Amino acid sequence: MKKNDVILIVVILALALASFGGIYLYSAGNTEDGEAVVYLDGVEQGRYPLSQELSLEIPAENGNYNLLEIKDGKADITEASCPDKICVNHRPVKHLGESLVCLPNRVVVEIENSGEAELDAATR
Amino acid sequence: MKKTYSAGILLLAVALLAGIVLIQERSSELKRYETTFFDSFDTVTVITGYAESQEAFEKQAGQLQEKLRYYHELFDIYHSYDGINNVKTINDAAGKEDVKVNQELINMLKLGVDMYQKTDGKINIAYGSVLSLWHEYREQGLEEPEHAQLPPENLRNERGQHTDISRLVINEKDSTVFLEDGEMSLDVGSIGKGYAVQRLAEYAKEAGMEHLLLSVGGNVCAVGSKPDGTPWQVGIENPDLESDKSYVGILELSGKSVVTSGDYQRFYVVDGKRYCHIIDPDTGMPPEHFPLVSVLAEDSGLADAWSTALFNMEFQEGLALVESMPGLEALWILEDGGIRCSGGFGFHEEK
Amino acid sequence: MAKKAAYMGMLTALAFVFSYIEFLIPVNVGIPGVKLGLANLVTIVALYIMGIREACTLSLIRILLTGLTFGNPAGMIYSFAGGALSLLVMTGARKLKLFSVTGVSVLGGVFHNLGQILAAAAVVENARLLYYLPALVLSGTIAGALIGLLAAVLVRRLEKLNRE
Question: Most exposed: A119, B10, B57, B268, by fewest CB within 10 Å?
Fold first, then answer.
């Protein structure tokens, strides 16, 4: 019985190693594996892979909204109910750490989990 | 045989426990945390820092958030707050009476006056009457883009009569401020944020917070470097909104501040043309020299003020001024996308 | 019958104490879900000495007690998922008679972590969590093996006691 145990352990470890290698290769080769993460008032509302086209209305408070569109591996806010439209004017984002912020609606769309090198901050 | 087997297991268990304890020792290092909040200076603030635990970091960040909010209220020109005389208080009393204010406010105003002189009027904290006019038309233009208009020239000129900074009277002995002209008003948007960030950084250093990166709406200030000694990586945003490149390059920041002024964030469109929120005191109109300038300096207030001033100047004029001042560096992105740096502005361009 | 009840009570208390010990010595390797699995020791012993129903009850009570006292109530759902999958697999493995107690414990450890991760991924609706699977399989194997060796000794001793 002891022999079977050893075989079991070896097989499991081999599988684990193989899948670890597989995942590593996958995330290294896929440059568009980032996600647009939507936060409302700091609370995560949803994560959307940049690799899939999407048009999503983010409901904020009091009937306000921001329209998030993901296209060509980038996330952009194309419409919003806020008065200053800074979020709409902002360019589409796709790098890790980049974000689209709508202050009046307290909505933040941030890019996470991408395979790019990370910036600590951006001056603008 | 059984005895050795049991002994072996016991040994293994002890080894395991010892291993866990050792791992614990190694991981009581500093960990990286980040927090975001929205309640100051009409913008998003991100604080990135290293602390031993989430609670420790949140305590630090909470203190910083409170301090920032204090300056937000002190420099506010739109709201009054109980118990403090802020910039709005001064504006409301224009032409009537002087207002008693605290030393912080006076120091900030003095910086504004000093910068006016250094830049030959290219940054003017007494420019409120014209700025409020633009603010009005811009808000209108954003709400109803089809009817967007520029403020008419006669109105701009009329308001421009009430922007004489020499009529801002600061009495340090009595700690009071008085605006002689009843129609003039202060707008400290060009230096208030930077000044506050600088004070925040000083406060953080005194409180023993090293390894901090403050980003208040793009005004980035590094308190020290990262715990391993490497500098913070700060991206310079690409003002070309149509471009695929989000950043034109990366700046390494350690113990300094970088502030950017550009025409691509707060603007409105009239007849297909973009008009940004920074107004040149000499022309009464948004400048059209170049899309962006970033200023690097040890003091965040100076960086903020200089970025506005340089944005209002021609590139050559600005470059000459920057090169003449040690400790001040800048980067311009010109209309054609070309990048120009002053001597000491080290940055890696992203191709 | 009374002996059985006494046994159950003792084992439950033991499992609870082990959970507390795990709570006091958190293993921090940066990945969520890596644990010593000490409590599994009790579960496995119960499975071999008393049977599947008793082991199930034991696990259930332990998870509830832990979650409602020093643990995280919200995290109970992951413990349930992991515990359920682990117990299912261990019962099946034991019936197959292919492995010793150690081997069954390894399977228990691995599937406990698998159950937890699947539950977590389902709750946040994010399959990216599976990225942690290889590391958790590894830690589950190691923990399971060590716990298994201990369990083997215990089971043998207790079986002898029972027969006396």
Answer: B10
- Euclidean distance between CA atoms C131 and C123, whole angstroms: 16
Please check whether residue C7 is in contact with residue C42, taking contact to mean a CB–CB distance below 8 angstroms: no
Q: Is residue B43 part of a domain?
A: yes
Query: What does the pLDDT average to over B66-87?
Result: 96
Contact between B250 and B263 under an 8 Å Cβ cutoff? The reply is: no
> In this structure, is residue B118 part of a structural domain?
yes
Write down the ipTM of this complex.
Answer: 0.78
Structure tokens at B247: 């950043």
Domain boundaries, chain A: 1-30, 35-112
The answer to whether A4 contacts C99, with C-beta atoms less than 8 Å apart, is yes
Chain B closest-CA separation from residue A98 CA (Å) = 9
Residue B232 is part of which domain span?
31-53+208-349
Contact B9 C28 (CB under 8 A): no
Domain boundaries, chain C: 2-163
Q: What average pLDDT does range A26-52 have in this prediction?
A: 73
Which of B5, B12, B21 minimises the CB distance to C146? B12
For B135, the closest chain A residue by CA position comes to: A84
The model's pLDDT over C79-133, given as tens digits with 9 standing for 90+, comes to: 888 889 999 999 999 888 888 888 999 999 999 988 887 876 676 555 555 666 7
> What CATH number labels C2-163?
1.10.1760.20
pLDDT for B5 beyond 80: no
What is the pTM assigned to this prediction?
Answer: 0.61
Identify the CATH class of A35-112: mainly beta
CB nearest to B213's CB, from A83, A95, A120: A120
> Do B279 and B329 share a structural domain?
yes
Q: CB-based burial of residue B242 (10 Å sphere; 0-12 exposed, 13-18 middle, 19+ buried)?
A: exposed
Check CB contact under 8 Å for C102 and A2: yes
Interfacial C residues in 133-162 facing A (CB < 8 Å): 133-135, 137-138, 141, 145, 148
B131 domain-assigned: yes
> What are C6-22's pLDDT values in tens digits?
888 888 888 888 888 88
Q: Do the beta carbons of residue B177 and residue B171 sit within 8 Å?
A: yes
